[in-house]
Known about the structure:
Blueprint: H1 2-7, H2 14-22, H3 26-47, H4 53-59, H5 64-71, H6 78-87, H7 92-95
Amino acid sequence: xxxxxxxxxxxxxxxxxxxxxxxxxxxxxxxxxxxxxxxxxxxxxxxxxxxxxxxxxxxxxxxxxxxxxxxxxxxxxxxxxxxxxxxxxxxxxxxxxxx
Length: 99
């Protein structure tokens, strides 16, 4: 599942996924996965019509400074991610779907 999450929004063909990530060490992989997750969070915020990250965080009772770090690819606890996904009005499955 982790490999899928990291490459999901890079639109890599499934057969390329394993070759791509086999060349990475654990730290590179984690950094790349978090960066991809941050990009996904930002993309969804913009799609919801929030051009300002601080306003989105404030309106959904999320620490504004921490939310900004998440969008930049900082490490995130699952409970924090779940709160963000809920703020987007999505399920976990929808958040991690290809579409």
